[in-house]
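Risk register update: the risk that structure generation would not scale has been downgraded. Supporting records follow, first protein first.
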Amino acid sequence: MTDSEYDVVVVGGGPAGLTAALYTTRLGLDTAVVDRGGGRAAMMQDTHNVIGVTEDVSGGEFLGTAAEQVQSYGADVHREFVGGIERVDGEDGDGLRFRLETDGATYGARRVVLATGFSDVTPDPPLPPTGRGLHYCLHCDAYMFADEPVYVMGTGDSAAYVAMIMLNFTDDVDLLTRGEDPEWSEDTDEMLRNHPVEVIREDIAAANRDDDGWLESFEFEDGAVREYRGGFPMYGSEYNTDLAEAVGCELTDDGTIDVDDHGRTSVDGVYAVGDVTPGHNQIPVAMGQGAKAGIAIHMDLRPFPRSVEGIDEMGPVSSGDVPALSRELLATAVAHEGHAGGPRTDAADDVETGDEQPADDD
């Protein structure tokens, strides 16, 4: 491997991608994360629903710590945007399979993990700030608005359902269509008429905030002022599947990347994890998907144990064949604070300078 060739390249530095990179790195694979920055998790004012992480940790802090952890184990993290991918199978089954292009570099990889996420469709202003009255994750943020006045924006079934779901947390829920005609189904309309949700059809003229920047109220075009502490816009999502489509990955009917239970796509060697795949858009779910994909890739690429067929072809494993870690990754591992018995800087120096210990003859 060279500085631009890796066992694994992860595209996307959110919770799913960083977790996948953590596992592949700690399981002995040279790994790079190529991340353009931003993303849904990076926008979080506070972190919710992640056990062991307190509310006062922002999304940026959460991701920054995660990236530092991944780098400490020996992965590389590059701040670049991957604009292209192509399959370039190596001469043998374990050679480089993919090339990924950015504006400034080309990366080769034996396996690729797509953790490219999605973007929420943002409603037109006037709006409160994201995280201070404008929220996109019901499962993350509904708890915040217990016994508070809440709005939901949208005209489809999903908006109507979220408005009714919020009645589990508060008795004051309005559904704002913002001057548009409702598009929800007849069954949904009947459900709405039998739940205490008020449908407000006028568009918003202004958003008022308190001294901390939190939403206080909306002023509507008919002159009415209604108090809200926060709410949820429901206008859909745009999945970032350009790279997946470019390499031939199959998509589901809802536009996500089709994967199995370990993140494998329809293209051999390409995995996908996190919000760009089907399922709940939650940090713990994304982290679990990243972990499972990382383990699956390790099992796919690890050279040992050598199979019976491999032994017939290549012979028995000799002491000179092991360990399978690259020189750089081995040096990082033995010098890491988590190494058994503490960091071994002397062993790391030996590895880095090529002063290998003599191996026993078979």
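Supporting record for the second protein:
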Amino acid sequence: MSNVLYEKRDGVAYVTLNRPEAMNAIDEATNAELEKVWRDFAADDAVDVAILTGSGRAFCAGADLKTFIPKWEEANMLDVRKNFPHGLGGGLTRGQHRLYKPIIAAINGYAVGAGLEIALACDIRIASEKAKFGVFEVRYGLHQGDGGLVRLVAVAGIGVALDLTLTGREVSAQEALALRLVTRIVPSEELMQAAEETAHMIRCNSRNAVRSAKETILELIGRPLDDGLRLEALYGYSSLGDFADARARLAQFGKK
């Protein structure tokens, strides 16, 4: 795979978009490679967490419009319907969004257009101080179509979603933190270390609990309060299984 670098070390999958000459824009080949990567990540029981980043000065500059526009300007509604299970980022935005293993976005530079949609589809977003964000689709006669609006509203609220989407303005890492688009900002040279430390913290927890917690959160989105409380109870208590893992962890804690 040339457009996507994929490596596994110590229970962590490292996924790097590798089209620096195109600021890691997603073309058909890259999307197909990413789809294979996420399927492998989901199936490999030896890895628990993924770190997604980009090579060069961008995380991802969005869809490669040179190939994206010609593909869809001749499309019909059936083509659109067939595309529902195949969102950008190899399906991370839509289609493979039900991965219950956590994915950390290490945002090293520009995350704009569909690149922002992909970042928002990750579970934890850590940004370099040099990172830039923006809903740039509107600059080119488009708007988000791969989960960007849904997740932007969920993450940052309607007001922020309207502001960023209607203006198409660039957002600094510092403002992105204030808008809750990211959870942390770190110096550029410390970005991967911060992502790896976060991955390690996740891996120190119960695998079943982590995956069940992510699944539960995804299920709770948009639910009425009573439905959400029932689902949380159902998923939370059933995730304990035979209590063996909980008992072992409690015993280990007691020894400390």
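The beta strands are 4-9, 12-17, 49-54, 58-60, 103-107, 110-112, 124-128, 132-134, 171-172, 184-186. On this basis the risk owner (M.S.) recommends closing the item.
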